[in-house]
Structures are given as C-alpha cells and as structure tokens.
Write the structure tokens for this entry.
Amino acid sequence: MAKAARDAMGNKTIKALADRGYFSAPEIKACDDAGIAALVPKMQTSSAKADGRFDRADFIYIARDDQ
C-alpha cells in the first residue's frame, strides 16, 4: 500500500505509518527495499494483560527512591 501511495503522489521518498498489530516483518522489509521509511510502534510482547495480570507498562521507575 505504501508503494502505491508513493507512486500516486509522484514522490521518490515517503514515510509510512502503521498501527500496532497491522504490519509484519516482510512488509517492513519490502518498504525498506523500496526506499520507504516505515514508522511502526514498539511491539507489546507480554501476555500478562490478556491473562488479567499487571505487565511492565503498569509500572514506573522512581529514580530518586530507586524503586
């Protein structure tokens, strides 16, 4: 889709933005091969939320208290 958008706009370079879960490694590679910068969010690899538990995103680090 990013290639089609680039061709339709007539630009040589574009940036493609993807939502979490709506991209795959082969698609990112294809964008890279075509000279398209693919901007994708960091994957969430923990299944803790799905299991009803806390995951890493639920915690913050307090530097002054080292906790």
Remarks:
- The first strand starts at residue 15 and ends at 17.
- Residues 1-42 form one domain.
- The mean pLDDT is 85.
